[in-house]
C-alpha cells in the first residue's frame, strides 16, 4: 500500500460517489480508483427523473450525466456496475463484492481509502397490495422506465400519488402534464409537510387549480389488485376508495446504512452515518457522503441527514480530495435549502420553519411579507410570500420559506448565503442586491422581510402570527372599504374598520385600554397603522402577512 | 425647537428623499416633516423611465410611485414641489427656498434635522448643437415625456444614443423595440465600460444581433441642427456623420453637491457629500443620501459615490430614522451591485472588476467560468459567463461580473451577499443553494467559479487570463478534433491538438521543459488536462474561460 498511489474505493455511483471519484482523480493521477455501483447506471440525473416521465425532458439519454465509459476514458476510473459491496473488513481494509451477473459469487477488493455513497431507498409501507406491478417508487432509471411505460399506455387515465413531498409534487405536476387525472394523498394535514401550513397552502391551491384531487390528513390503507397482480384501486384509512391505473409511492427514503453499521461505523443521532468536517466516518480511512451521511447542520448547530443533491456533490468532492491527498476544506454547514416547482408556482425553504424550531426547542420569531418579485410598475410582477425566521435573542437568521411565482429561487439563495455566514436580519437589510426593473426592486422582498424583522427585534413594531386567536382583542382592519367588502378578515368577529389614511382622525373611536391588533392586506399599511397607534399610547400589534396570509390559515 | 417634535426638512423627493421622509414619519408621529422638490414630481420610478418610452410600461401613471397627495395623506408629509432650496444657514438652522411659480421670491424654512437628497444631473458636454430641441438627456418625467413625444412621431425613424452605460443600453433596447434604427456611440473602446472588456463583449454582440449600429472608441464631436433648432445629424470625432432624428445623451451624471458645498459641508474624495455610517455629513444635524452622497464601499474599504437606487433607498430609510430618533443601524457597505437587461441577455456586476482593481492598486486574481443557468439536462438551459475576482492573499471575494441569459441576477445577488460578510471563495464553494432542475444545478455556476478560484488559491491549478499573449508558449488545445476544426483558438499559432481523453497517452509528444498552457471550450476539460500535466512534471496553466472567452477578446 502506497499513499502516493493509494487505492480509493467508492461504494455508490450516484449521490456524491461520482463527484468523489472524479475529484480524487484530479487530485491524484497515480491513485487506483474503483467505483462500485450495484445498479446499472452511475451518475444519472436523479432529480430529473420525474421530468422524463412527464416528457419535459424528452430524451432519456439526457439523464445519463456520466456513463461508466466516460468515467473510464476521462478519469481512468474503474467503474464496476451491477456489483454490490456486501461487507467491509476494516482490519484487513478489504471489501467483499458480489460479482455481476446474478450469481452469488463474491471477491475481495482492497482499499486504502473507502468512500461510502450508498444513498437511500424509498420507503414502501407493508400494506396489502403494495407489491402490485403498477405500484412503484421513483429512485432510479429502472423505476423511471417502469413508470413511464405505464404512463405512455393509452389505457392509463388515472394515477394516485402517495406523499406530498418534493418527489410526490413533482410527479403530480408531470402526470397532469401527461393528461393523467391525478389524486394526491398525504398523511399530514397539508401538502409539503416540511413547510409551515400557511406557506404550503398556495401549493395546494395551485394543485386544485390544475384539477388535482388533494386528500390531506389521509393515509393509505391498502391497494386492491386484480388477479394479474395489477392494482386498480386504493383505499384510504378513512374508507375513501380511489380508482387508479398507477400508484406512485413518494413517502420518503431510508438511508442505506446497513453496510456501515455492520462494519461497526458510528451512526449519528439523525440515523445517518456519523462524519466529521472532512466527511470521515468514525474510521479515518472511511468516508461517507450523500443521502446516508450526516452533515453539519447550521440552524440547529448539530449534525443531520439531508437527502439533497447539492450537499452530496459538495461532500463527495471534499471526500474525494481528502482520500487522495489527506486534506480538504471543511464541509460547510448545510441548511436543507431546497425548492420545488408546482405548475406556475414554486416553494422554497432553507433552515428552520416555525414547526421545526418548536420541535427543536429553538426560540424563534418570524415575520411574513407578501411582495412582488420585481418593481411593481414593471409589467409581469408576480407575488411571493416570504416568511423569515430569526433568533429572538440576537436576530440571527434561522430560516426562510418562500412561495410564489418568479424569483423565489433567488431569494432563498440570498438568505441561505446570509445564513452561511450566521448573518442577522440587520445584515440582510443591508445586502447590496442588483436592481433594475426587470429583475427586482430597490427594496427587494428580502430587504422588506429584513426590515420588518428588524422592526420587530428593535421593538419598533409588534407582530402577531397569522393563525393567532383574535377573540377578545380589539381588531382594526385598516384596508379601504372596497377591500373589506370584497373579503373580510377571517376567523374574527367585531372587526373595527378604519382605513389607514383616516386613522389619525379616528383614534378616539378606539379603546386605548384594550390589546389591539391592526391588519391590512399584506401587513404594509398595518405597519404604518401600528406605528400611529403605538405612538398614541396603544398596546398594538400588526397581523403578520395581513388578511392574505390569514386567509390561507382559515381557508 | 423640541426634539420630541422636531422639524425634519428633506431636500429632494427622489433618490432616497421619499424613503427618508416616510421612515421619519413612521418613527415619529410628532415630527413636522417638510419635503422640498424643485421639479414637479416626487418619488417617481426613475429606473423605469426608458421602459415607458419603449412602451414596455404603457401607462405613464405607473411611474408615479408616490404622489405628493399620497405622501400627505398617509404620512402627513408637507410636500412642496417646484420649490428649490437655494442655501443652508447652518448657524441659524434655516434653509432659503425659492417659491413655486417661477418668481424669484424666497422664504426661509427652519429645521432641526436636514436631509439632503439632491441627486445628480446628467452631464451635457459643451459641444456645438447640443442645445437642439431633439438632443435630450433622460433623468426625470419631463425628459421622458419629451423623448417619448419624439419617438411617437411617425417621422422619427433613427436615433443616436451617446454613451453605452446602463441608461444608454436600456434606451437602445427600448428604441429598437419601438422600431427606431438606432446607433450607439461610446467613447471607450467597449460597450458597458464598467465591465472588463471580455465580459462586455456579449452585450455588444447582442446589440449587433438586433441591428444596432455600435461605434465604440468614438466621441461625439458636434451635432448639426437645421434652422429650426432641430438636430438632423451628428458628427463623431473620427469624422463619421450619422443622420438622426433624435439624440439621447447618456454619458454620465454629476452629483448635485453645490448646495452642500456652499454650506461648507465636507465633500469626500469621490466628489460626493462626505457621510458617516448614520449618513450624517460633517454637520451632525445634516444628512446626505442618494446619488450626491458617499457610501461605505466594501471592496475598496473606502467611501464612494454610487448612483444606484437600492443604496439610496436604504440610506434614506436610515437617515430618516436617525433624524427622527437620534439612532439607526449602520449603513451597510455597498458594492455597486447592478444589472442591465439588453434584449435577451443581461450583464451584472458587483464589487471590483479587473480594471478597477488595477486602478485601485488592489492585488486581485480572477477566474472565469462558462456554465448553464440550470441543470444542462433540463430543457431551456441558458449559458452564462461568470468572472470572479478575489484577493490574492486570502481569497476574500472582491467582485464578480456575470453575463448571460436567465439567472444572472440570482448569481450576482448571491455573490454580493457573500461579499457583505467579507466571505472568501472557500465560503462561496460551500454555500447551500436551492437546487431543482428548473432552477439550478447541484453544482451551481457560483460553486463552479468558487471551486476554480479555490483551486487557483490552493495552487492546485494555475490559470492564465483569456487575453494573455501566448507567443512562445507551448499551447495544447484539448478539445475534440471536430471542435478545433470548427473554431481554432484565437490569437495564437502552432497550437498542439490533443483531446483531453487521449492526453495521458501522448505526454511524450509534449516538451516538459517549456511553459505550457492548456485550453478547451470553457476551461472545464482544460482543468483536467492541467491536472494531468502538472502531476506529470509540467509547468502548466489553464486558459481561463477557454476558447469561448478568448474569442471575445480577439473578436
For the largest interface, the chains and their residue counts are:
A-B, 92 and 91 residues
- Unreliable residue stretches of chain A: none
- Shape, per Cα inertia axes of chain A: globular
Overall CATH architecture of the largest domain in chain A: 3-Layer(bba) Sandwich
Report on the biggest sheet of chain A.
5 strands, parallel
Span between termini of chain A:
66 Å
As a percent range, the share of strand residues of chain A is 25-35%
Q: Evaluate the radius of gyration of chain A.
A: 26 Å
What is the C-level CATH assignment of the largest domain in chain A?
A: Alpha Beta
- The oligomeric status of these chains comes to homodimer
Q: In percent, how helical is the residue content of chain A?
A: 25-40%
Please characterize this protein's 3D structure:
The structure is a homodimer of 555-residue chains. By secondary structure, chain A is an alpha/beta fold. Chain A folds into four domains: 7-119 and 254-325, FAD/NAD(P)-binding domain (3-Layer(bba) Sandwich), CATH 3.50.50.60; 135-251, FAD/NAD(P)-binding domain; 344-457, FAD/NAD(P)-binding domain, CATH 3.50.50.60; 463-553, Rhodanese-like domain (Oxidized Rhodanese, domain 1, 3-Layer(aba) Sandwich). In chain A, 26% of the residues lie in helices and 26% in strands. The first copy, chain A, has 15 helices and 30 strands. Chain A has a five-stranded parallel sheet. The longest helix of chain A is centred in the middle third of the chain and has 17 residues, at 309-325. In chain A, 58% of the residues are buried. The model of chain A has no long low-confidence stretch (mean pLDDT 96). The interface between A and B is large, with 92 and 91 residues.
Amino acid at each position: 500500500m502506497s499513499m502516493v498511489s493509494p487505492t480509493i474505493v467508492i461504494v455508490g455511483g450516484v449521490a456524491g460517489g461520482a463527484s468523489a471519484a472524479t475529484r480524487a482523480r484530479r487530485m491524484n493521477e497515480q491513485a487506483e480508483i474503483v467505483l462500485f455501483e450495484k445498479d446499472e447506471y452511475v451518475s444519472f440525473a436523479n432529480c430529473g427523473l420525474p421530468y422524463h416521465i412527464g416528457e419535459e425532458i424528452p430524451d432519456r439519454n439526457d439523464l445519463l450525466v456520466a456513463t461508466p465509459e466516460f468515467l473510464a476514458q476521462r478519469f481512468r476510473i474503474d467503474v464496476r456496475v451491477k456489483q454490490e459491496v456486501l461487507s467491509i473488513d476494516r482490519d484487513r481494509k478489504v471489501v467483499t463484492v458480489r460479482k455481476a451477473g446474478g450469481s452469488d459469487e463474491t471477491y475481495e477488493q482492497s482499499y486504502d481509502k473507502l468512500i461510502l455513497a450508498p444513498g437511500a431507498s424509498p420507503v414502501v409501507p407493508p400494506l396489502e397490495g403494495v407489491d402490485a406491478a403498477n405500484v412503484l417508487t421513483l429512485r432510479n432509471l429502472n423505476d423511471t422506465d417502469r413508470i413511464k411505460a405505464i404512463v405512455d399506455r393509452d389505457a392509463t387515465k388515472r394515477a394516485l400519488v402517495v406523499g406530498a413531498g418534493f418527489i410526490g409534487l413533482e410527479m403530480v405536476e408531470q402526470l397532469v402534464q401527461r393528461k393523467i387525472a391525478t389524486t394526491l394523498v398525504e398523511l399530514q394535514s397539508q401538502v409539503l409537510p416540511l413547510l409551515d401550513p400557511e406557506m404550503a397552502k398556495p401549493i395546494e391551491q395551485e394543485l386544485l387549480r390544475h384539477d388535482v384531487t388533494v386528500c390531506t390528513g389521509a393515509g393509505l390503507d391498502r391497494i386492491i389488485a386484480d388477479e394479474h397482480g395489477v392494482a386498480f384501486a386504493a383505499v384510504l384509512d378513512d374508507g375513501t376508495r380511489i380508482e387508479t391505473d398507477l400508484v406512485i409511492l413518494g413517502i420518503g427514503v431510508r438511508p442505506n446504512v446497513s453496510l456501515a453499521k455492520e462494519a461497526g461505523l458510528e451512526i449519528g443521532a439523525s440515523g445517518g452515518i456519523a462524519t466529521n468536517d472532512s466527511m470521515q466516518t468514525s474510521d479515518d480511512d472511511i468516508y461517507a457522503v450523500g443521502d446516508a451521511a450526516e452533515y453539519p447542520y447550521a440552524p440547529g448547530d448539530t449534525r443531520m441527514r439531508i437527502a439533497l443533491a447539492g450537499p452530496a456533490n459538495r461532500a463527495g468532492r471534499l471526500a474525494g480530495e481528502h482520500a487522495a491527498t489527506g486534506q480538504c476544506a471543511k464541509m460547510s454547514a448545510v441548511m436543507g435549502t431546497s425548492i420545488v416547482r408546482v405548475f406556475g408556482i414554486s416553494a422554497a425553504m432553507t433552515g428552520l420553519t416555525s414547526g421545526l424550531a418548536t420541535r427543536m426547542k429553538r426560540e424563534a420569531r418570524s415575520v411574513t411579507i407578501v411582495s412582488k418579485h420585481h418593481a411593481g410598475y414593471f409589467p409581469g410582477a408576480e407575488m411571493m410570500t416570504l416568511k423569515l425566521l430569526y433568533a429572538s435573542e440576537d436576530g440571527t437568521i434561522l430560516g426562510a420559506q418562500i412561495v410564489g411565482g418568479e424569483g423565489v429561487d433567488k431569494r432563498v439563495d440570498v438568505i441561505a448565503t446570509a445564513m452561511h455566514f450566521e448573518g442577522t436580519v440587520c445584515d440582510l437589510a443591508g445586502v447590496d442586491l442588483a436592481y433594475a426593473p426587470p429583475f427586482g426592486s430597490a427594496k427587494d422582498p428580502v430587504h422588506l422581510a429584513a426590515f420588518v424583522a428588524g422592526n420587530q427585534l428593535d421593538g419598533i413594531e409588534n407582530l402577531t402570527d397569522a393563525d393567532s386567536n383574535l377573540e377578545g382583542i380589539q381588531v382594526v382592519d385598516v384596508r379601504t372599504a372596497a377591500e373589506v367588502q370584497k373579503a373580510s378578515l377571517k376567523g374574527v368577529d367585531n372587526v373595527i374598520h378604519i382605513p389607514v389614511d383616516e386613522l389619525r382622525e379616528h383614534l378616539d373611536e378606539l379603546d386605548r385600554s384594550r390589546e389591539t391588533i391592526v391588519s391590512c392586506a399584506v401587513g404594509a399599511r398595518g405597519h404604518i397603522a401600528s406605528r400611529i397607534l403605538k405612538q398614541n399610547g396603544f398596546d398594538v400589534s400588526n397581523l403578520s402577512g395581513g388578511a392574505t396570509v390569514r386567509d390561507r390559515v382559515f381557508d
